[in-house]
Q: What sequence folds into this?
């Protein structure tokens, strides 16, 4: 992600003298950008690390927080549980995402557009909403699947128990496999068929070619997907709170939450958050090490022909598998959520006299907070997306055109929030900016700043990729003809990047609408967002109203994303047009 | 409809002119506002006309009903109702105090220990509502210094799903919950979230020792968060027994048509005393005072009993089908026991139940 190959042309065209003259102005820009990034990224993380080493009241240096945080067998058990959860989710998400990505991008599987749409639907669904759907589906005594099983077999017990580690892994995997899918499919889209042809000529069949040639070529993308789903899983708060607590085990995020109970121990929470930070840094380091040693240069942007592999009858098997994954991630949970949203008491099942619109009426008319909450969610997400993209575009430009020395530092800071789990980032933000002098507690600003930081890596990755695709020659033409750099940016870069920026906007907007783990520590009573309200509703088991609110969130998000895709005229998330 | 509308419009617009208030001025005027209330009401309108209420007293639906009732009594005032569990409300309050940015105006908890603690920290504003002398004797005088007042009370018994359990088989007292026949079929709240559950667990610890919970854990109960979670589990048929069964939510849910029944245990129904306070640093002190008066008013108690929570006013009798605390054998801990005991119980709970 931070790979910025030196573009010699910029240096070549601008002579040493002009470069020196420009240095002052661009130095200011560089300083401004680094100040913004320090504010958003560096300071909260440093504050977190420092407060983990401070005594609660005196602020004196101490290791006591670490002793308390790790001096309890249950706390250590929670760490182990998180690791198990992360690994389980990463593996399962890979099993879900990679075959579907391969089938869509390399084979003649039917129904591709539909499957792609369903993967998108899974991406839009917040994990805690999926979790509620699955509670309704696979609650051991009352879940629909278990009821059907008992009705069919006459058994006294259901066979699925969502309140278990396996259940939690499944629930998170079905909502996070789109990451693996997107990573893998965009890489596969760039692999040409030449090497596969070579293998075929040498006698390898489709399966062998796929396993030995195609998939190894996109290993970096698959590993990227694995890491992201691992990190997602260990940082999530909502789904574990809904499933792990009744299943009677804790994970790191639910344990972190306990440090904020009576009496609040921010310092211990900070100490306890450190392994999460360490694990993520380690993962990214490992990724670099593993990928650095091999060459994957066959993944080039252009040239080479791509042909779809004819699967014969197997294409129906692939479609079946894809539909199974879609059923687990979208059809089934959506079906029960819709049922709950439109019913008086969801336990009474599908019947006409159980139908009602009252849950929606309650939310949109009687409940005074819901309207404000819905508005907040979309307003904050939209502003966040604008802020994250403007900032990252500016930085990507500086980095890409090598306008200042050490610009890679900026790139690193932009993607650094990737390694900070949302809940940890929120604790850092809270510690740094909630109290005076900034006193941002309960304001929209702190939420937007928090969200912007959280999604900066996504915005930066997209902007940087977009910029890299633009040859500097066009800009240089403007400059040679006497135009300023600003003019070049305004009249050349922005128009050229319009589509990919709009795509990036949606990529930030969607996760922002569903973000819970960082929001939960940053909201005030007037700045609540839907995710937090859903969480509060789930606390008292009000599944009917909760599902109705979830349905509103999904419909609005899909509508906005749909309009966005229409404007940019492509499937922004699932296909990359080079 | 149309002529009505027009007449309504004329009436309404003249009312608007007269009162200079928003469209809510059309709502019924308050029945006989006392001079004190009127004074608070006028002052409240001048300080922004709204207040934020963190409440753990009831479920969201009841809380919203109280908020709407207040708004129609005092047109032009708006209540932000934030329903959470007591521990979550406490967590938010302490975050706000730490950040010196008080957002909450009135805090309604279900854990008296929080009130004692926050009062000691100087987090509350002193205010003695006029109505505080008019509530039932048993709810009076909890804080002689006037920082917190009992504004709600509720009971915890045992609930069961009548589709799964016959009346004859249902538990009669708390120790019946330990019967192995209820294995995997009991739903509980969590004292680390719910103030009700915290006090409930403490009361049973006083009664039977912590050993009771060690044995209960062997029945592998389903631990939710809010005490209301247990009712959801019953409605869904996920559990057969609500081990910590909030009377109000259970009877409310029964009225909606869910197959439920309520048991008032022979060894005592747990009574929960729930306090409210005004936060120091509240930006709407007059609205907050008015709201405290409202919570202790007859009107609020009428809404409470509609939703099967205890009335705290002598004038209001319980709804049909509900029993009142004064007719039952009641068990409850003292304020001192709650302050000291609930944090202990939470700790023990985590050790015993693992979460």
A:
């Amino acid at each position: 992600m931070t790979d910025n190959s030196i573009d010699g042309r910029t240096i070549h065209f601008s002579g040493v003298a002009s470069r020196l003259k420009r240095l002052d102005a661009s130095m200011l820009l560089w300083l401004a950008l680094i100040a913004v990034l320090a504010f958003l990224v560096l300071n909260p993380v440093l504050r977190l690390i420092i407060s983990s080493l401070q005594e609660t009241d005196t602020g004196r240096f101490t290791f006591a927080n670490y002793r308390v945080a790790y001096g309890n067998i249950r706390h250590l058990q929670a760490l182990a549980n998180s690791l198990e959860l992360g690994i389980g989710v990463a593996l399962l998400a890979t099993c879900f995402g990679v075959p579907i990505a391969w089938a869509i991008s390399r084979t003649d599987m039917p129904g591709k557009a539909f499957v792609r749409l369903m993967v998108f639907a899974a991406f839009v669904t917040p994990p805690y909403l999926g979790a509620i759907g699955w509670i309704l589906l696979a609650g051991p005594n009352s879940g629909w699947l278990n009821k059907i099983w008992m009705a069919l077999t006459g058994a006294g017990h259901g066979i699925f128990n969502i309140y278990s580690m396996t259940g939690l892994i499944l629930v998170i995997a079905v909502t996070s496999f789109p990451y693996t899918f997107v990573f893998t499919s965009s890489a596969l889209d760039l692999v040409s068929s030449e090497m596969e042809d070579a293998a075929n000529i040498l006698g390898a069949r489709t399966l062998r070619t796929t396993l030995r040639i195609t998939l190894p070529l996109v290993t970096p993308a698959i590993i990227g997907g694995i890491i992201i789903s691992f990190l997602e899983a260990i940082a999530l708060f909502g789904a574990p709170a809904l499933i792990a607590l009744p299943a009677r085990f804790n994970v790191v995020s639910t344990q972190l939450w306990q440090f904020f109970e009576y009496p609040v121990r921010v310092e211990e929470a900070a100490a306890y958050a450190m392994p999460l930070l360490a694990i993520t840094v380690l993962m990214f380091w490992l990724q670099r090490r593993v990928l650095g040693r091999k060459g994957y240069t066959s993944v080039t942007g252009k040239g080479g022909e791509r042909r779809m592999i004819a699967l014969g009858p197997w294409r129906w098997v692939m479609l079946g598998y894809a539909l199974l994954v879609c059923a687990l991630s979208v059809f089934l949970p959506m079906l029960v959520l819709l049922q709950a949203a439109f019913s008086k008491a969801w336990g009474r099942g599908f019947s006409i006299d159980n139908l009602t619109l009252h849950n929606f009426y309650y939310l949109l008319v009687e409940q005074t907070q819901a309207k404000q909450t819905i508005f907040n969610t979309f307003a904050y997400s939209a502003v966040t997306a604008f802020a994250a993209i403007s900032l990252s575009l500016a930085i990507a430009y500086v980095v890409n055109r090598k306008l200042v020395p050490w610009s890679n530092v900026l790139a690193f800071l932009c993607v650094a929030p990737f390694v900070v789990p949302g809940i940890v980032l929120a604790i850092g933000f809270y510690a740094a900016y909630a109290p005076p002098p900034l006193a941002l507690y309960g304001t929209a600003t702190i939420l937007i700043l928090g969200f912007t930081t959280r999604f900066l890596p996504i915005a930066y990755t997209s902007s940087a990729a977009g910029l890299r695709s633009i040859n500097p020659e066009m800009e240089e033409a403007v400059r040679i003809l006497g135009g300023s750099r600003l003019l070049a940016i305004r009249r050349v870069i922005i128009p050229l990047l319009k589509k990919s920026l709009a795509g990036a906007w949606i990529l930030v907007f969607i996760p922002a609408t569903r973000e819970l783990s960082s929001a939960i520590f940053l909201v005030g009573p007037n700045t609540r967002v839907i995710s937090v309200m859903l969480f509060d509703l789930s606390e008292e088991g009000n599944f009917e109203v909760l599902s109705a609110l979830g349905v509103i969130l999904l419909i609005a998000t899909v509508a906005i994303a749909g309009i966005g895709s229409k404007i940019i005229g492509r499937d922004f998330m699932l296909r990359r047009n080079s | 409809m149309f002529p009505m509308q027009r007449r309504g419009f004329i009436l309404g617009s003249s009312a608007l002119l007269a009162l200079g208030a928003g469209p809510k001025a059309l709502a019924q005027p308050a029945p006989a506002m006392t001079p004190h209330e009127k004074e608070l009401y006028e002052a409240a309108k001048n300080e922004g006309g709204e207040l934020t209420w963190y409440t753990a007293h009831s479920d969201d639906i009841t809380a919203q009903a109280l908020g709407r009732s207040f708004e129609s009594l005092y047109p032009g005032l708006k209540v932000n109702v934030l329903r959470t569990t007591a521990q979550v409300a406490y967590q938010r309050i302490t975050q706000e105090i730490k950040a010196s940015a008080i957002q909450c105006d009135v805090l309604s908890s279900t854990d008296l220990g929080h009130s004692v603690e926050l009062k000691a920290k100087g987090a509350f504003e002193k205010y003695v509502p006029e109505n505080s002398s008019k509530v039932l004797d048993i709810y009076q005088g909890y804080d002689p210094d006037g920082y917190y007042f009992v504004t709600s009370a509720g009971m915890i018994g045992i609930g069961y799903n009548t589709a799964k359990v016959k009346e004859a088989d249902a538990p009669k007292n708390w120790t019946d919950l330990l019967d192995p026949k209820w294995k995997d079929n009991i739903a509980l709240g969590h004292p680390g979230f719910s103030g009700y559950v915290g006090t409930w667990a403490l009361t049973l610890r006083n009664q039977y020792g912590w050993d009771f919970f060690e044995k209960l854990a062997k029945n592998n109960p389903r631990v939710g968060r809010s005490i209301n979670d247990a009712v959801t589990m019953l409605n869904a048929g996920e559990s057969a027994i609500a081990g910590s069964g909030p009377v109000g939510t259970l009877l409310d849910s029964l009225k909606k048509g869910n197959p439920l029944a309520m048991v008032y245990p022979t060894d005592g129904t747990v009574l929960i005393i729930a306090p409210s306070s005004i936060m120091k640093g509240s930006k709407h002190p007059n609205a907050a005072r008015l709201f405290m008066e409202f919570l202790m008013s007859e009107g609020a108690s009428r809404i409470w009993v509609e939703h099967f929570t205890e009335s705290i006013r002598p004038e209001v009798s319980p709804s049909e089908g509900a029993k009142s605390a004064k007719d039952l054998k009641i068990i409850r801990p003292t304020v001192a026991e709650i302050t000291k005991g609930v944090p202990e119980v939470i700790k023990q709970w985590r050790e015993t139940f693992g979460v």
Observations:
- The mean pLDDT of chain A is 83.
